[in-house]
Amino acid sequence: MKGRVVVIGQHQGREAAALIVDGVLQDLLVDAGDTAPFAPGAILRGTVDRQMKGQGGVFLRLPDGAKGFLRETGGLRPGQAVLVQVSGHAEPGKALPVTTRLMFKGRLAIVTPFAPGQNISRRIKDAEGRERLAALAGAGMEGSPFGLVIRSAAGAADDDDIAADIAQMRGLAEAILDDADGAPELLLDPPGPHDQALSDWMEPAPDDVAQGEDALARHGVEEMIDALLSPSAALPGGGHMAIEPTRALIAVDVNTGNDTSPAASLKANIAAARDLPRQLRLRGLGGQVTVDFAPMPKRDRAALEQQLRAAFRGEANETSLAGWTPLGNYELQRKRDRLPLRQILGG
């Protein structure tokens, strides 16, 4: 299967969407349902509970008895109502991470109430096109102190569609900021997998958009999901890596398989480094990740680390590459922007 295909359908009765490029699953969205109280992107009204000295933040009371943790503490007092946006998923037993830096994300534009200025995606290179989009941004945000980001998909969109998207996001932001006082409440749910796929995966334009109740099955996505529920991920050349979440961290073990040649370890390690971002993304894994690469000479570490940095460079998710430990493992930290796939599906 060649080309870029967006598949929108159902998996185990849940809304789901998959992005397949040249037959390889690159991204996967599955509705978490009741698995998580609030998904990243949700905007909530919370109440300041208490400040945590030494942790640089405050706890919030959120809707439905949930707890939030906010690092921005300036000017906050106990009992004060505050608007926040969920910024990630919580570790088990911990409060939900939230931020006051709200973003109202449309398909073509993002309104940022607390980050003024108008910006156009750097992926739009055409000078004339950027000029056109700047004029639309200026007109759409006239008289507003809010900031605006024009997304890359706007480069191929009609003026009317862009203007409508800006107006919708601006209106939504204004309405929610006018509703800042009161008891904890959910004010805005983030888009589900279908809407998110149609918003985030349309640039560059896909070769096909497949929709329907059985669309995932028709395109082999069901089998791809089944493979992700196994800890083992095959690597080119016969090697594999085992990806196993523990309570403290994500453990990754790279093996060469049956290849015992002198170059086998470096080949398997490079293959694992290149595929690791995709595997973590598809499996919904974040937090501390420790990789036990196949044994290799220390002189090869620099080349392998270069491959890791190149692989993670294009990731939208925040990732910090910490480096090698004294025992020869490699550590990195990845933001928890999704729930683990196995947790959602009960695998």
TrEMBL record:
Keyword Lipid biosynthesis set for record: no
Keywords (A to Z) from UniProt: Endonuclease, Hydrolase, Magnesium, Metal-binding, Nuclease, RNA-binding
Molecular function in Gene Ontology: endonuclease activity; hydrolase activity; metal ion binding; RNA binding; RNA nuclease activity
Superkingdom, natural source: Bacteria
Domain RNA-binding protein AU-1/Ribonuclease E/G: 105-205, 213-336
Cofactor: Mg(2+)
A biological process from GO: rRNA processing
Short name of any one Pfam family annotated for the protein: RNase_E_G
Membrane spanning stretches: none
GO cellular component: cytoplasm
Record-linked PANTHER family: RIBONUCLEASE, RIBONUCLEASE E_G-LIKE PROTEIN, CHLOROPLASTIC
Name assigned to this protein: Rne/Rng family ribonuclease
Taxon lineage: Bacteria, Pseudomonadati, Pseudomonadota, Alphaproteobacteria, Rhodobacterales
